[in-house]
Design a protein that fits this description.
Elements lengths: L1 H7 L1 E5 L13 E4 L9 E5 L5 E5 L27 H4 L30
Antiparallel strand pairs: 1-2, 3-4
GO molecular function, one term: nucleic acid binding
Pfam family, one: zf-CCHC_4
Protein name: CCHC-type domain-containing protein
């Protein structure tokens, strides 16, 4: 997992409670150079030796450019794109699918009155 985190940025730590949670995802924290584009995913070698693709999703992701994948501006203000490409969102390589939905924390109900 450190290798995967290292592809996104500088690996900090792995959330031990979210290691392949329900077989769907693993959660790790990295320091990301915001001048570089977000990664949409990467290839990994699966247990059977075949190559597979994993998708990255980002928590607390601020606004970012759907064309170049960089933080801090939106596509209409992008300097990494030709003006003609701005008119066609079908050419954008990034989108809302990079946003992770917020994790729900378990809630503990406290009774109003002590139970006898």
């Amino acid at each position: 997992m450190e290798l995967l985190g290292g592809r996104v940025g500088v690996f900090l730590h792995l959330d031990p409670e979210r290691i392949l949670s329900h077989g769907k995802f693993t959660r790790f924290r990295v320091v990301k150079d915001v001048r570089q584009p977000l990664l949409r995913g990467s290839t990994v070698q699966l247990k059977d030796g075949k190559m597979g693709w994993i998708y990255y999703k980002y928590e607390r992701l601020p606004w970012f450019c759907y064309h170049c994948g960089r933080l801090g501006h939106v596509a209409k203000d992008c300097t990494h794109v030709a003006d003609d490409d701005l008119l066609n969102p079908a050419l954008y390589q990034y989108g809302e699918e990079l946003r992770a939905s917020p994790l729900r924390r378990p809630s503990v109900m406290q009774p109003d009155k002590p139970i006898d």
